[in-house]
Each structure stands twice: as structure tokens, then as C-alpha cells.
What does this fold into?
Amino acid sequence: MTEQTQRLYPLKVIYEDNHIIIVSKTASEIVQGDKTGDVPLSEMVKQYLKEKYQKPGNVFVGVTHRLDRPVSGLVVFAKTSKALGRLNEMFRLNEVHKTYWAIVCRRPEEPEATLTHWIVRNDKQNKSFAYGKEVPGSKKAILSYRLIASGERYHLLEVNLKTGRHHQIRCQLAKIGCPIKGDLKYGAPRSNPDGSISLHARHISFVHPVSKEVIDVIAETPQDNLWKALGG
It folds into this structure.
């Protein structure tokens, strides 16, 4: 990869083989193109593969899942249509296990718990609302968390998703009074200087869709003092 392309499309590749590539995204990057017109991560991966392997013409990169723009951490892309189809099905069946780290503004009452809510997505506001019981148009949302570190003002939770709903972690943690640091949309008192929210896709594991080997990867936390203090 040339130095110029590396500057234009900086990528932190965590794992790569013939069928998949896993990268750790920054909080400013978008996974797929949107109305902003900013270069998406999927395009950066294409450019990376095109240059690395000197591929002529188009390069196949399939998006298997998404992370909200202000969230950092692991994203899995497919390099072949076979892998894309199988990974899409694995995500649909919750066979891909994702662990997130979240820095929250208030210590939860229980150090460890499973949260079950019914979430309604409002597309106009690009926001989800959590309810304690089933309501019209809602989808069941389940996650578990445990408290792994505390500072004077902020607390670090490890979160495991049991379902994959829109803004699920952000919405459910806010519902119990523990909004994620920097997440103004869900009740944080102030934004983070870089526009991020303190939510990080830390760990992902799954059975490889082609080789059937277990893939198990971890992404380093963002390089700021609070993440270093709480996350080690």
C-alpha cells in the first residue's frame, strides 16, 4: 500500500484472510456511505485491498453489520460473496458474539445485570425509545452488563448483546439512568471533544463462515486518558 493511500485511507486491520477482513474503526468513521458524502470505511477497505493485492477493476467488499458513527471498535467485512451470505445469516441468528465497553456517567445500581426492554425506533429522530413492557411497534431488546472499573466520575461497563436493535446499548443504558459519556442524544450532560461517544466494540468471536475455525479478536480502546485510566 502506498504512503499516499495509507494517509487517505488509514486502516487498522486486526485480522484478514481470503474471505474476511476485520478492522478497528475510529469514532469519526462511517461504515457505509450516507448523505454526508464522507468516504465510508467500506470504501477504505476496498482501496486497501486493491493496492495491497494490486487488483485491477472493482474489489468486492461486503458489509456484514454496522456501528454507529460515533462508536469505535471492531467491524467485520466480507471479501467474498460466499462469506457475505454466511456472515449475514450468522448475524441474523446471533451466532456472532460481540462484547462492548461503555463508559457511563453514573454507576448502575446493580454491578451486574441483564436488561430486557421493548424498543421502538423513531426514524425521523434517528433515535430509539425503551419501554418496560411490550408496546405497539416495539421489538424485544436484551443485553447483559457488568461493572469492570470505576473512577471518580465515570464507570466502565462490559456489555454483551443478546439482540441487535437500533441504538440498543445507548438506549437501554440510558433507560436505567446510566447514559454513555458524550451521548447527548440519550441524556449525557455534555459532548466529547471529538464528537465521539464512549462506546467501543471491544471483542468479537465467531466460527469462520468458510474454514470453520474460531475467530476471536480484540480491539484496543481509543487513545485518550479516560479510556486508559478505566480500561488499562
